[in-house]
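Page 42, continued from yesterday. The earlier attempt failed because a stray header line got pasted into the input along with the sequence. Redoing it now with the clean sequence only.
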Amino acid sequence: MIYLTVIYRVVTILLVFLLVALLLNKRHLGRFTVFDFIAAVTLGAVAGADIADPDKPHGPRMFALIAIGVIHVLFTKLILEKRKFGKLFTFDPTMVIQNGKIVVKNLKNIRYTLDDLLCQLRERGVFDLSEVEYAILEPDGKLSVLKKSQYLPVTPGDLKISTQYKGLSIPLILEGKVIQEGLKSANLTEEWLLNQLGNQGIANPGEVFIALLNTQGNLYISKYREPSNIQKIDH
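This time it went through. Structure tokens are written below.
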């Protein structure tokens, strides 16, 4: 009986966590602040205690989880509305490279090692420190990097070259199923789609994992069948 109680509590806690996550929305989940960290630890502690001690009442702890989520949302709204108050509970961006020079003092203040800096630079495609003009450690722990002008990629705008509009692709087939809404938005028929599949030797949509139509009118098709030779990536 006690195992059924534990399973019941795990399921209900997961459902409540899902509710809280939806309540917090993408903005809160995408940027982890100090208060986010505190709320997450508290949520985990309450949930863990509830699962580990099935003899205690379940309702109050469920209420506590929801209350933490609601308080978090209200507190975040206060932070957004009162900037000075919010600065007390959030980290400020920190300049770690300025005018091509590492700001050692700031690295020490935030206890950020040189290895940490080099690792984040590599993750952003920077393998040569001499290419960096500015690097700023953001409040969420991510590193924003501005390369020196001579190392920035050339854009069509720099060369005064006109380009075609590029927008979102329209899904026409997803996991073997024809998306009628996609065909309708592109002013296409299912007959047209089947003809396109036939031209590529595909008998029916069930063979297609995904088919997308881009803004240039080109159809991208990826079938369920895997390539004969899948390239292995060495660590």
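Notes: The helical segments are 2-30, 34-52, 59-81, 83-87, 104-109, 114-123, 180-185, 190-199.
Reminder to self: strip header lines before submitting.
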